[in-house]
Specification:
The chain is mainly alpha-helical. Helix content is 63%, strand content 5%.
Length: 953
């Protein structure tokens, strides 16, 4: 009997859910989850999904995770896309690789080794490959045994699922419960996402057991035989199938007279049932089955035959057909040639376990030699080297390191680490061992800081001073991320002191820059670091790479202290695109961005936009998190609330993918502040709570920004006592981390406002005046304008209009648009209260326009209410024309006007197509147009007011 799908029994509810999900895929995609213990029919339900999708004319591609190949980078992704994305001659289908999708080429094409995109660039490319694949018809991705999926493929799914809710893509996965997963955190992140449907197949009833056995045994099954079989297997479909196939191979019928035989076989494991079927086959079949068990599913028939020692391909094909007839393997066609896979992972396990330890070792060694000989990708060779003892293969180190390099190039640091770690078990010279330790440690830092620190410490302990210079920055940062900041700083200082006095000056400056940047934001209370600033300031000007890193680091440290002296050099340094492209965004470069953003320097956003583009093309998840954090705060401070919200959410998602607590903390904070300004207070509170920021507790680390956000939230909610208490906690955090600049973390503003509401006016003015003095020293418009506005709020009534007017003068030409709107609102309100109704209208109208453009609903609502109070009618639309567009909307409108499609715009701006659709809808409304063709003319028009304010008479 050739392998065929059996009738689906007692799955009417599941079938209805499948049909409904397939029918609704055009409305938007998502997850279809199938969960259950081994053998309950999860794979059969996935087959039903495939059939239903194919009949509906949808594109379908399938893959299966296996416990044997969990370290094979992007193994599941390759199964999904390899045949779809490449033609039979291995040339790419260019339409699928358009745009950003080309960045994922190496993850799919196991042959190519060109290019080294970072892990995020690969994820982003795979996302667009998926979007490209569903343009002509809806797409269904089916993955069996997700719990054994390799980590890079899990990360792809975690990245994909939140972004396909408006795309016709269905991801159907089966998860075997009770099994140890490749990565439990990533798996739970995926299966915890809201699912379009969840299927939980149960064991079969006695009646269904009889029907299943009739299909398998192709004959009548009497009642006692069926009842005994049901009792022996518990109604587990897989065990029933194996039992029926074994009886058929032995010529045993389903009569009641054979019910006693069920008791003999029914308690046996699948391994025994499979073994008994193999024994009944010709002798040449078992070696072929064992070869496939060692080589893995989707093994080309010719390769399996060679592994099994069979020279005749016709004999191998005959054996394969017999194995398929006995329900052990299935024969698929891949690129026009037959390939073998087992019908179920438990069947593969059964065949593999039939090999004793010596046979397994010998078989894996032979497989490694065979794959090396035919030029297979190094990761395929490495998989088998991992299964044999160290020192058994003299070429192991070279193959393992080549596999690590290939995995790293495809954005799979976990797989790369596994190969490097295995290399360390081989007999190595001291120098080579240190090189591999450093490589493995740096790789491990991307996903497991504890392991990375341990390996780097081992390399450090055996290294010479010059070698330590390469290790020190990584080891230092590892200890800082492990909440051991003093140890990390001491390592970095020791690295510097170990250099020869007449050694490489540029290297010394690089190390000093790394030390200073890491201590600025993450290490509390190190006066010895701050004390070195005067000496660094006195260094002669240079244009080396180390000089430029040092300028950024010094600027960052000075920014934290409220000293603007380093901003100019930071601006000059960040203007060098080559330097920015080469520098690590998690180190001194980030200090430069922070310094310019805090100084309201327009160069910061341009540099960050370019960095986002580079990160999507060739960056890692850690790189992207840093860039999104800094750009998110810059957009927030500029009043682009939608952009800040988007970057905050992206930072959180990246933190969930790479496990970075700092990324989740800071991403949640910038998101919360953007939501607060939009009036979405409950969502802001949820964002902070999700990051562990509450009035009772906070996670370890630099929480000063998060505490300021929480204090602001409590103050807006009217909880002024709590707002003051949290502001004091933020004050202490800033003191510990030596953050003195209100441009960075302004705890004084919520503290002063809380005291004002509590009628503790003298205390409020004292804090506001201190804040104003610090802001004047820093000098940036946003910080100074805010300090003037708050000082006006808490000052005597006769001084308020002067303070607010000064704030407006400072902010008018700055990029701090929302802060400008707030100052205008305060001035208009003060003028109205002083009896100047006519004088109040212009600033209130301007405040309304700007706040509406920023999406700051509370400020716009207050301005509208104040306009009503002074007798001005509030227009239905505050502003139309190009001036009404937010920065994010303007970027989308410009690209659409130039002829770009939604997908092209999404790829250019690194957002989802849904985000583009939302922005374009807003653009059409604000520009009063109905199509793309009208955009060029509309964007060239001047802003115009509609429903002009008129006095009420």
């Amino acid at each position: 009997m050739a392998h065929r799908e059996l009738e689906l029994l007692e799955r009417e509810t599941e079938s209805a859910l499948i049909a409904g999900t397939i029918a609704g895929i055009q409305k938007g995609g998502g997850l279809l989850l199938v969960k259950g213990v081994a053998g309950t029919g999860k794979s059969r339900l996935l087959a039903e999904i495939r059939t239903a999708a194919t009949q509906a004319g949808l594109g379908v591609t399938t893959a299966r995770g296996t416990e044997f190949e969990q370290d094979f980078a992007f193994g599941v992704v390759r199964q999904l896309f390899e045949e779809m994305a490449f033609k039979a001659d291995r040339t790419p289908r260019e339409s699928l690789w358009a745009g950003a999708a080309r960045q994922a080429r190496d993850a799919i094409d196991a042959i190519s080794g060109a290019g080294e995109p970072g892990d995020f660039a690969v994820l982003h490319g795979l996302y667009w490959l998926t979007i490209n694949a569903c343009q002509d018809r809806s797409l269904v991705l089916i993955i069996d045994d997700l719990q054994w999926c390799d980590r890079p493929s899990l990360r792809y799914l975690a990245y994909l699922l939140p972004r396909i809710e408006t795309q016709p893509v269905l991801v159907a996965v089966a998860v075997r419960t009770g099994e140890r997963a490749t990565d439990e955190r990533l798996l739970q992140h995926i299966v915890s996402a809201p699912a379009l449907a969840e299927l939980n197949p149960k064991d079969l009833s006695a009646k269904a057991t009889a029907r299943l056995l009739r299909q398998v045994m192709q004959g009548e099954v009497e009642e006692e035989f069926a009842v005994t079989s049901h009792r022996a297997t518990g109604g587990n479909p897989l065990l029933l199938r194996e039992l029926g196939l074994t009886f058929s191979s032995q010529g045993v019928s389903g009569s009641d007279g054979n019910a006693g035989r069920v008791a003999e076989l029914g308690g046996l494991a699948v391994a025994h049932l499979v073994a008994s079927r193999l024994t009944a086959l010709p002798e040449a079949c078992a070696p072929l089955a064992r070869a496939v068990a060692v080589l893995g599913d989707r093994t080309p028939l010719m390769r399996a035959a060679r592994m099994a020692g069979q020279d005749s391909i016709s004999q191998a094909l005959e054996c394969a057909m017999l194995l398929e007839q006995r329900g052990i393997v299935r024969i698929d066609e891949i690129y026009g040639s037959p390939a073998l896979s087992f019908v179920h992972p438990l069947v593969r396990n059964a065949v593999y376990e039939s090999l004793d330890r010596t046979d397994r070792t010998t078989s894996h060694h032979r497989a490694a030699q065979l794959l090396r000989e035919i030029g297979s990708p190094p990761e395929q060779v490495a998989y088998h080297l991992m299964k044999i003892p160290a020192t058994m293969d003299p070429g192991a180190v070279a193959d393992l390191r080549a596999a690590a390099a290939a995995a790293a190039a495809r954005g799979a640091p976990e797989s790369a680490y596994v190969y490097l770690r295995r290399s360390l078990d081989e007999a190595l010279e001291d120098g080579e061992r240190r090189v591999i330790l450093l490589e493995a440690g740096r790789t491990a830092l991307l996903f497991d800081v504890v392991t990375g620190a341990r390996l780097l410490q081992e390399a450090w302990d055996s290294a010479e001073p010059v070698e330590r210079a390469e290790i020190g920055p990584y080891l230092g940062m590892a200890y800082i991320f492990l909440a051991m900041p003093d140890v990390g700083v001491d390592v970095q200082k020791s690295t510097i002191s170990g250099l020869a006095a007449d050694g490489d000056d540029d290297l010394r400056k690089r190390l000093q820059a790394c030390l200073l940047s890491s201590s600025t934001w993450y290490v509390p209370g190190r006066d010895d670091i701050v004390e070195c600033l005067p000496e660094l300031h006195r260094l002669p000007y240079g244009d080396g790479f180390g000089d430029r890193l040092l300028y950024c680091a010094v600027a960052g440290r000075n920014t934290a202290l409220g000293d603007p002296s380093g901003v100019l050099r930071a601006r000059e340094t960040l203007a060098d695109e080559t330097f920015v492209d080469q520098a690590d965004p998690n180190g001194p470069l980030a200090c430069g961005w922070w310094s310019l953003a805090a100084a309201d320097d327009g160069a910061s956003i341009a540099s960050l936009d370019a960095a986002v583009k580079r990160a999507h093309v060739g960056g890692s998840l850690f790189t992207l998190a840093s860039v999104y954090i800094h750009r998110g705060y810059t957009l927030l401070w500029h009043g682009d609330l939608a952009g800040a919200e988007q970057d905050g959410r992206e930072t959180i998602r990246v933190g969930q993918l790479n496990g970075s607590g700092v990324a989740r903390l800071l991403g949640s904070t910038v998101l919360a502040e953007a939501l607060i300004e939009q009036g979405r207070l409950d969502e802001a509170g949820q964002a902070l709570t999700a990051a562990g920021i509450t009035s009772e507790s906070c996670p370890p680390g630099p929480v000063y920004l998060s505490l300021v956000a929480l204090s602001i939230l409590q103050g807006i909610r009217g909880n002024h006592e709590m707002a003051l208490e949290i502001a004091r906690q933020a004050e202490e955090a800033c003191r510990v981390y030596q953050i003195r600049n209100p441009a960075v973390a302004d705890w004084r503003t919520p503290a002063a406002l809380a005291l004002h509401h509590l009628e503790r006016e003298s205390e409020a003015r004292l804090i506001a005046d201190e804040n104003l003095e610090l802001a004047r020293r820093w000098g940036a418009p946003r910080t100074l304008g805010r300090a003037l506005r708050v000082a006006g709020r808490v000052s005597l009534e006769k001084e308020r209009i002067t303070r607010f007017g000064e704030a407006i003068d400072v902010l008018e030409d700055s990029p701090a648009h929302l802060e400008y709107a707030k100052a205008l609102l305060e001035l208009g309100t003060a003028l109205r209260r002083a009896g100047g109704r006519n004088d109040a209208r212009p600033p209130l109208r301007r405040a309304l326009d700007i706040a509406t453009r920023c999406g700051a609903v509370p400020v716009a609502d207050r301005a509208g209410a104040e306009l009503a109070t002074v007798g001005a009618r509030r227009r239905r639309t505050a502003l139309t024309g190009p001036g009404a567009l937010t920065p994010s909307e303007r970027r989308v409108a410009d690209l659409a006007a130039s002829g770009r499609t939604n997908r092209q715009i999404a790829q250019t701006l690194f957002v989802t197509p849904k985000t583009v659709e939302v922005h374009l809808s807003n653009c059409y409304r604000k520009l009063c147009v109905t199509s793309r063709a009208e955009l060029p003319d509309a964007l060239g028009a001047e802003p115009e007011n509609t429903d002009t304010d008129t006095d009420r008479t």
